Amino acid sequence: xxxxxxxxxxxxxxxxxxxxxxxxxxxxxxxxxxxxxxxxxxxxxxxxxxxxxxxxxxxxxxxxxxxxxxxxxxxxxxxxxxxxxxxxxxxxxxxxxxxxxxxxxxxxxxxxxxxxxxxxxxxxxxxxxxxxxxxxxxxxxxxxxxxxxxxxxxxxxxxxxxxxxxxxxxxxxxxxxxxxxxxxxxxxxxxxxxxxxxxxxxxxxxxxxxxxxxxxxxxxxxxxxxxxxxxxxxxxxxxxxxxxxxxxxxxxxxxxxxxxxxxxxxxxxxxxxxxxxxxxxxxxxxxxxxxxxxxxxxxxxxxxxxxxxxxxxxxxxxxxxxxxxxxxxxxxxxxxxxxxxxxxxxxxxxxxxxxxxxxxxxxxxxx
Length: 367
Description:
The chain is about 30% helix and about 30% strand. It has five helices and 18 strands. The protein has helices spanning about 5-40, 60-75, 90-125, 135-145, 205-210; strands at about 45-50, 55, 85, 165-175, 175-185, 190-200, 245-250, 250-260, 265-275, 280-285, 290, 295-300, 300-305, 310, 315-320, 325-330, 340-350, 355-365. The strands form two sheets. Strands 7, 8, 9, 10, 11, 12, 13, 14, 15, 16, 17 and 18 form a twelve-stranded mixed sheet that branches. Strands 1, 2, 3, 4, 5 and 6 form a six-stranded mixed sheet that branches. Strand 13 and strand 14 (about 310) form a beta hairpin. It starts with 5 loop residues before the first helix and ends with a strand.
């Protein structure tokens, strides 16, 4: 009886597994593209742009670019879509060029303002001209404020013209799997469509994740947050002396006051402090509470920032620098006792820091 050599049998097995994994990836990406297409068609979207996804809260990574390009591929192949798609690489190049033009205009405006001021002072002859011909940071900033930054959705020329929605999202590393969430964002910063899938890691994905601590190879958008070094607060929560979990980025400090369970509701109260500049803060219902006992997950039923509350997809509030505001997150329909929260991961967007996860771990629940 003829026998297949063991090494050859193993080779056939790995080929079969690889083919199956690729098939599952294709099927899931096709389903994601179909789900988004159906929702965007219902919203009568005309033109959208795909942006690079975040990875574990970190922007501008190669794995984020990979999943953005994959979505573009499957959307392009979808014959039922009624909208145009601007791929991530074209979007980033156009944004970089647009921002370069804005900076040039700001510099020119500052030079003009400075020249007019000098002429005025010379005519008045009431001050010495101590100008060395160089523009200060304050002058450039003032010129930029006067000119204003043209919002993406109001651009009238070039490849970005006519875009009314962007596809954004994030990738969460769950060990052997990646959970990828795509969402369509309108000009009000509202998530109006979404799709999610979980993918088994492939060698290619592992390799791309391994590049996380170096800049992505393709063009980068000016003004994005730089990649944090290993152990920076963007990836790891900090703990003050009183052992209350907190999290901080470049402009916001989240401090947990406590989580209390009453029957089937857990309420977590926090304080958020704006450290440097006034900011618009949005918290999304993709925020997750993880039970330490079995890793079960719960999303908030109600989110409150100061005087703004929502039981929908998000809540938004403009916050003033150097002041704090209360945040309350209510999780309903929890049909068990939770004594310890493994992690409270708050999905948020800040006008000074883009999208991020504010994560606090090892939280004792008060009963």
